[in-house]
Design brief:
Chain lengths: ~260, ~300, ~325
Amino acid sequence: MNSNIVKIIAILSIVASGLWIFGLGVMVQDQFFHKATPLRKEITSQTETANDQQLHLVALGDSLTRGTGDETGKGYVGYILDELRTKTKQPIQVTNLAIKGQRSAGLVKQLQQAEVQRQLKQADFVFMTIGGNDLFQGGETIRNFSIARINQTKASYLRNLDAIFRTIRTVNPQAIVFYISLYNPFNQLNNAKTTSAIVRQWNYDSAEVAARYPNIIAVPTYDLFELHANEYLYSDQFHPNKEGYKLIGERVASLITFTKGERK
Amino acid sequence: MTDTLVVQGLRKTIGKKEIIKGLSFTLREGEVFGFLGPNGAGKTTTIRMLVGLIKPTSGHISICGYDLRRQFSQAIRHIGCIVENPELYPYLSGWENLEHFARMVPNIPKERISEVVELVGLQNRIHDRVRTYSLGMRQRLGIAQALLGNPKVLILDEPTNGLDPAGIREMREFIRFLAEKEGLSVLVSSHLLSEIQLMCDRVAIMSKGEIIRIDTVENLLKEQARVYWKAAPLDQAKKILAEQTTVLGEKDDAIVTFYEAGQLSAWNEKLVQAGIRVSEIQPKLPTLEDLFIELTGGETID
Amino acid sequence: MINLVYNEMLKIVRKKRLFIIAAIIAVLVGLFTYAQLKHVQEVQKRLGTNDWRTQLQQQIIDTQNRLNSSGISEEWRKFLQIRLQQQQYYLDHNINPSAPGAPTFMRMFVENSIELFLPLMVMVVVADLVSSEASGGTIKLLLTRPVKRWKILLSKYIAMLLSVSFIVLSLVFLSYLISGTVFGYSGWNLPLLTGFAVHGEELDTTNVHLLSQWKYLLIELGLAWFVAIVVGTLTFMLSVLMRSTAAVMGIMLAALISGAILSNMVSSWKSAKYLFMVNLRLTDYISGTAPPIDGMTLGFSMSVLAIWGIAALFISFLVFTKRDVY
């Protein structure tokens, strides 16, 4: 019986050796002698299994949407989610596509991706923050202050913003889009007056763009941070802290209701 | 009688040190040949060269007419050996061990395995794992393994090492049996003269890598045997004994003379006639130590 | 020769090492299956979906965010960028790289065990193949048979090859069987991408093509076997050179572990790519992960391994046939 075990193992091993050598052969043929054949792009003919029971939230934009500065990691999207869960029993799915440091041009590109569009198509609500990085450029704008350059930046930003809104509306004409506008993180600095003016103008122009499309709501945050900037800002003096995000989240959430006949 | 193993001018140098300094000897069919020497004399190294484990620096070894170096396979077929301890695979049974080694030699049928098992008397335990064997059983299994290929020459390195007195005796008889009844040449190494003396026909005495002497056991013993005389008065006894034979000296209040078979009573009579009181006559076979001191002129065993 | 190989296989089997290894693999596979299951459940809970596209998209975004955070090392950044491009490629072509199922689990298990786990298992069997004969004294009995020394060593080497094949086989068999109870047994025909080439920071996709998972697996297993053979050969050499099995294991262990560590930090020490232990992750070339040092390719790594293996084999035979046995 023992000698049989040895024989069985030996035979199995020989067969296995053959198999693995064959694998190596396939590898050589596949990896070293493969003719480059262009990969056909698969047409995503998937049936949209948009689960109507589910509430789809999609978040787009930059570090603010990501939640940078909130030590709990929730960000305003997280607080909105918390609020919504108290309001409805529907299961909620959140897709946060925000990228730290993203500028408007980046978002335009991101929205071209098939998967992002697919997500967007399913969305019931879209939240976005954008522009902060365009305007402040990581503090660069404040250090080398130039009205002319800011205007130039703003012009291209507004073009991008328009493209973003247009894309969203084309992909999903129904979803309600909350465009969360800027606050002035430099409120405490000595040139607060000038910066505030710029941010206000920036927000105004952005709201104008948003107004061209249906169901795109510009949500102001400027006022939230106006009085107690230090209490609501993170230690980098730029991003909101936990409390700051909570304020934003609560404000946006308050705009969403689930009363009958609310639908679009 | 034909020579089964012929060794000529065997040398081994390791580094600059010459360990084996030109050995030559032959083994004849049906004889038991003893390799006697203290530990470190080069017995094991020589044996390892005989079985091809160590390559000699120079010299020839031929087994049944085949040169060990050039015709290794044919030559080694005629040798069965145990080098040092009989080390077998402890996780296999005795039978499996034998099967294992049988597979390495062409044309050994299963019957031959049973045959050697019976020969060494291991039938009852052969299917147990070697791990559970006593040293004596392992020694026997080792011999079974060595006999498996019907060798002409059997080489056993310290075969009685670690055996109890009964085991030693059994081993001795077995070795004699193999030589006399089966016609094998057996080479046995040992550092105990008493052992060699009881089972060997001829002996080679080794020291420091050289063979000092090769002779039959009988001759060696005859030459080296001593008689211890305890008598009073001592000086007078010495004088009388000196007339009969050579007095070699005094030791522990006894006179030491050569031993000559059949002469002791005559010498004793002379002593008695001279009025000397002989209290003790003790013939002593030489110990290895004596033999060595004798042969090498004072070299000590270390 | 067949008799000699049979002898060696008998000894390997009777030492029970192969069964111990199979048991270790079974336990580990069970462990990883559970971990993977937990992970899947966790992701599902976090995202509220089991849609892989959403998950992959989320992974891409996570990667992008990590890329944007300050203070990550250059190497890590490069790695992330390549992974990002790859994930994006999968997403664009609608291919789920981690579709659940036993074959996928198997593939991941092989990819993750090729560098350390599999070599360790091989080592357990091979380390005492020759050294135990020397330390147990049975080498004297082996070498005083009418068989030439090179034949004895060759039979041991062949037995080593067979055991390596057996170990890989049991790895495949057990991981398929055990993980399948949880993830299901299907997924052999899942298309996967291969042919990525990494040039600096760029992912070259000109040769990218689709492979069915079974073919992909076969390739990876071939490579895993190759790696195991090379590691086995090196261990075999040490086993010939040394009497102590513990010393053989110690040296191989040190080499393997240092390889795993070095792979993560050698990118600036270019000549380290000629060491065998940083070349073990052959499957990375198939899946398109960046190699630890610039300029390493599948062909290069295989050549390096082959040269180490051949040299080890040569030394083994030279020493074994010439050596005096005391």
